[in-house]
Write a structure and sequence with these properties.
elongated, alpha+beta, about 20% helix
């Protein structure tokens, strides 16, 4: 009985890393951050993943960011952002692990106008 219990505990301990999947460790802009006219977004995961989709949703915006779906798995991705009107944006991402597991997540940030906003965004948009 003791041998069975020891084998069960060992199986659980060694299986835990296999069951763990990558998570979003950080983002720039960070969740809840207020940033001035962001130009790029960086997503950093705990393990290498293949980024599938990244979508920004705001008051008057629904923006799918360009993602190279044929790129090799990586831990960090840097994406160009279009000019964003001031406001709060929700970022929804989808990534795939090498084992086929699909992960999703979301975070939000607020974009505010910089001093050159009216020149870069005619009409204040």
């Amino acid at each position: 009985m003791l041998r069975f219990f020891a084998a069960a505990v060992a199986a659980l301990l060694f299986a835990a890393p296999v069951l763990a999947h990558s998570a979003l460790e950080s983002s720039v802009p960070a969740n809840g951050a207020t940033v001035t006219d962001p130009k790029t977004m960086t997503l950093t995961f705990s393990d290498a993943v293949r980024l599938v989709t990244v979508k920004l949703t705001g008051k008057d915006a629904d923006i799918a960011l360009a993602v190279d779906k044929s790129a090799a798995a990586a831990k960090t991705f840097s994406l160009s952002l279009p000019a964003l009107a001031p406001g709060t944006y929700e970022v929804k991402w989808t990534a795939g692990a090498d084992d086929g597991h699909v992960m999703t997540g979301a975070f939000s940030f607020t974009s505010v106008a910089g001093p050159d906003h009216k020149r870069d965004h005619p009409g204040g948009h």
